[in-house]
User: Fold Carboxylesterase type B domain-containing protein from Pieris macdunnoughi.
Amino acid sequence: MASQRLPLHLCNSIKQFLQKIKAKTNFSSLKLELKLDWQGRIILVLLIVLLFSVTSSGNSFGRNSMLRTRIIGTRYGKLQGVILPMDQHKYLKPVEAYLGVPYATPPTGSNRFAPTRAPAPWDDVKTVDQMGPVCPQRLPDIDNETLALERMPKGRLEYLRRLLPRLKNQSEDCLYMNIYTPVQG
Assistant:
């Protein structure tokens, strides 16, 4: 099998990049030699591209990873949520979201028809970054659009299409709230 090589201009670009790094680090023992096989060179190029894409993209790297909020205290324990960017709305700033915060004991088992009680306190910081389940409910069947439009106006059908994915996670243990607040800055 013939040995494959990277184009000369790519090797020179990598070499110049490494020389800049060497100049900024002041490591006298840093040797600059590109004695890599073609697989090693490809990996090096991919790492450099990844490095530049992460550092040049600014805030977009944080959008894919969930940024954590400050830790807040409640009478039941400490909470930490997530910061949600409002990218789709030009003039809105990010918000701190505390999702799925329990506000009462689950109405299950012997608590099913009893009045609600305060939730049990917790010792650790509770990460609240996902919405809790919604209470059980009968959902309308909108799979067949023609039949659905006989029972409801088009606007309601479109609204239900947007809403139904959020109603998939149903449980009797549904006493959770979502809290949104401007980012403290």
